[in-house]
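Suppose you are handed a protein chain with no further information: no name, no annotation, nothing but its sequence. What can you learn? This example shows the usual starting point.
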Amino acid sequence: MQPPVTPASIISTGTAPLPRSPTISSSPSAATRRQLFVSAGGLLLIVAAGSNNASSGAAAAAGYDPVTQAERAASAAVSLRVGEAVRLLDLGRDLQARGEFPEALASFTAVVSGYKDLALSEYARVGRALVLYEIGDRDESITEMEDVSVALKGYPEIHAALAAALYADKHAPLLAENQFTIATLLDPHYTDLAYVRDTKHWPPSLVTSLKNFITLS
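A reasonable first move is to predict its three-dimensional structure. Written in structure tokens, the prediction is:
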């Protein structure tokens, strides 16, 4: 039986060679996963940056006010004036409905003189003309009615009132008929004396003048 053969490398060095450690190869799948992780991380950074920019833009937009302080103050002042004019106009109508004609005249006049730059002052002129017909100068009342019938052309109440006054005081039946036609085409209620007396609260003398016109008496 022959003895075992000793490798030449052991004979020459006197020591046995160390075993080789296995080489770890980088597989394509592992490289792909690393690239995905890197790409995903970059995408998260981009999304985060975009979110921060959007938040900053929203905050800036929320803090922007296109209305200046001066404009806001001017708007508040106008609102106060309009509110006071409406209050006086409503007060005049309430006083007229209660038959308190001198007080109603004062309220309507306050709107006309103090708020003539507002459109609603024309409606105060209507009330003022009606009350003037009862307690004031009828010629002044009719002049006011004629002016307002132009400014508020198509407002049926002023046309009906002017028709009554023109017939009863100016003895102008044709002019009165023209005004009444306008009024009743727009609102047929003005043929009803109860309507002008109980709903529109016309003064008694104007109701009588309208009755005389309707009945041609």
